[in-house]
Known about the structure:
Blueprint: E1 3-5, E2 12-14, E3 17-18, E4 23-25, E5 35-39, E6 46-47, E7 51-54, E8 61-64
Amino acid sequence: MATFTGTAANETITPGFVSATVSRIPPGSLPGAGADSIDGGGGNDSLDGGVVTIRSLAAPATIPSSAAPAAT
């Protein structure tokens, strides 16, 4: 399980690539099949992971990536 925290920049957090401006715990980790936590921050982000925890102004929600809307 890893934690990814983005900034106000336009960033990518995917199993194949994580932008340099994203904080990763543990360092160097990539999202995968585990229960990762991804917070894109602001900006126009591209997010993709196994099971994703999405943080919003309302409340955190956990959804499987297969139920998430496709990126456009």
